[in-house]
Design a protein that fits this description.
single chain, about 40% helix, HAD family hydrolase, alpha/beta
Length: about 240
């Protein structure tokens, strides 16, 4: 049985650490942000002005339909699970999401105040569309009504108990849990996108999930406006999140 997982996260979340956990399974192949180049090719100004832009454009297909076709290709021998780390801000309003409905989709969320604060430490400007939460609301609406559960996992909940959430996900997917998902060797991976030197320092230094700790967030007026614009969507997602007792 082949299992194809789409993990949909905004930026400045635990998405790359989560990818490490799944890549450490011997039965799993991971794909890192396959729509990044397609997103950059279709955006301009500050939205398209990303570190390493030209390298990303050269490394991946820029046609979304070509990306979708690649994700549906047969998996390597001995591999049963495909885990795709998607960035939801790579979706544009006109994108057709019907290709994603057959996947086992999961939404990975984080409070907008923390996302905006982290984002602005790396880039000078930020708009509501840059942090992916509005797009996650769209995904919940478009992928959920088919009858397939779309779990919503809040990063704060997950980091308080990674093993329980990973066990739940494995059970939901019909695959066995392994302790290998809780710890991994430090350093880069061949599967990391070419943008990794710009964004992955903390993950390269990691050997597992960091314990949850509350963040003391202070936003200026512009940052607060972005967080406020995304807060209603986040609160709806948070209300729908998976809570393990």
């Amino acid at each position: 049985m082949t299992v194809r997982v789409g993990m949909w996260s905004g930026p400045r979340n635990i998405s790359t650490a989560m990818m490490r956990a799944w890549e450490n399974r011997p039965d799993t192949v991971v794909v890192d942000e396959p729509f990044y180049a397609a997103y950059l090719a279709r955006t301009t100004g500050s939205r398209g002005d990303h570190p390493g832009r030209e390298d990303v454009l050269a490394a991946q297909p820029t046609d979304p339909s070509e990306v979708v076709a690649g994700l549906a290709a047969p998996l390597p021998d001995g591999i049963a699970v495909q885990y795709v780390k998607h960035m939801t801000h790579h979706l544009l309003p006109e994108d057709d999401l019907s290709w994603a409905r057959p996947l086992r989709n999961v939404l990975l969320i984080r409070t907008p105040d923390e996302v905006v604060a982290s984002y602005l430490r790396s880039r000078e400007v930020c708009e509501p569309e840059d942090i992916g939460i509005l797009q996650q609301g769209r995904l919940l609406d478009e992928l959920g009504p088919s009858g397939e559960l779309v779990p919503v996992i809040d990063a704060a909940d997950f980091l308080r108990d990674p093993e329980s959430y990973l066990r739940w996900l494995c059970d939901w997917l019909g695959i066995g849990f392994t302790d290998r998902m809780l710890a991994w060797p430090s350093g880069p991976r061949d599967s990391d996108g070419v943008w990794a030197p710009h964004w992955y320092d903390a993950v390269w230094a990691s050997t597992g999930f960091e314990p949850y700790r509350p963040r003391d967030v202070h936003l200026d007026a512009a940052g607060e406006a972005v967080a406020a614009a995304c807060r209603p969507a986040y609160e709806r997602l948070h209300d729908a999140r998976l809570v393990l007792t």
